[in-house]
Write a structure and sequence with these properties.
14% strand, Rossmann fold, alpha/beta, 7-stranded parallel β-sheet
């Protein structure tokens, strides 16, 4: 960790799924720090609107994170318009809520393609640009579900566990260099993705701006694991350290004994109708599904 905070002024940052939600809030926070930001999103029209509203050195580029060629074109265009890539923030993700015996194979593939393969594709492509310059930072947005288990989110939890492990492995590979990897693990964030989910007692939902500020702090002073809020990491660690029976008692005390199965279908129906729709492949997704 540097003795002084790294400056973000003039740094080139590419963010996936950044037309709204956590991605948009992060872009806004970085613009305030003087960064030059490329917003990648399936919904180019909304991304362009967001870029215009944020002002500063912000550009919008079409992006399908499940397609390596699309990802490469996104980073190429970002560098062409803004300069050499300094930071990649893998933010795009989806979270259908469904019990395993009801989940279709297409839904499972879609979750893994976006949440896991998209992160891997992007990280590899970013490293190809960062390694010759000997510096860079990859930030992967996981979730506290990456270190926990919640009924109704089995495949989503699997995808976020993968992101946590993948990011730690990246950090290990580049430990002695100026290339950094950070895994951000938010609790429930007040975005469309979390609408209708039950809220555990003592754990209030955080705002996208809270996550954005944590990302900025990690870029200024690199660290591997970032929990939002910080107390969430303590709760998850405590739950994982307990034997099964005691864990169940703690989950009940927090109102988490049913995972996310007790949700409000009416307020979540719009998101679920997109995220849980049967498709033959991820490339047929509607445009909103990568803008978590």
């Amino acid at each position: 960790m540097p003795a002084h905070a790294n400056t973000l002024d003039g740094r080139v940052v590419a963010i996936t799924g950044a037309a709204r939600g956590i991605g948009r809030a992060t872009a806004a926070a970085l613009v305030r720090k003087g960064a030059r930001v490329a917003i990648g999103d399936l919904d180019l029209e909304l991304a362009e609107q967001t870029a215009g509203e944020l002002g500063g050195d912000v550009v919008a580029v079409a992006l399908d994170v499940t397609d390596p060629d699309s990802f490469a074109e996104f980073l190429d265009e970002a560098e062409r318009r803004l300069g050499p890539l300094d930071v990649l923030i893998n933010n795009a993700g989806i979270m259908p809520v469904v019990l395993q015996h009801e989940e279709t194979d297409a839904t499972a593939r879609r979750i893994l393609d976006i949440n896991v393969h998209g992160v891997i594709f992007g990280s590899k492509l970013a490293l190809q640009r960062m390694r010759p310059r000997g510096q860079g930072h990859i930030v992967n947005i996981a979730s506290q579900a990456g270190k926990a288990a919640f009924g109704g989110l089995a495949t989503y939890c699997a995808s976020k566990h993968a992101v946590v492990g993948y990011t730690a492995s990246l950090a290990d590979e580049f430990y002695s260099t100026d290339i950094h990897a950070t895994c951000v693990m938010p609790a429930i964030v007040a975005t469309e993705l979390s609408q209708g989910l039950p809220t555990p007692r003592l754990l209030k939902p955080v705002q996208p701006e809270d996550v954005a500020n944590a990302i900025v702090a990690a870029l200024e002073r690199p660290r591997l694991n970032v929990h939002v809020p910080r107390s969430g990491g303590v709760v998850i660690a405590a739950m994982n350290a307990l034997p099964a029976r005691a864990r169940r008692m703690l989950e009940k005390a927090l109102g988490m004994e049913h995972g996310v199965r007790e949700l409000d279908p009416s307020s979540r129906s719009a998101y679920e109708s997109r995220a849980a729709r049967d498709v033959t492949g991820v490339h047929e997704e509607t445009r909103e599904e990568q803008r978590a």
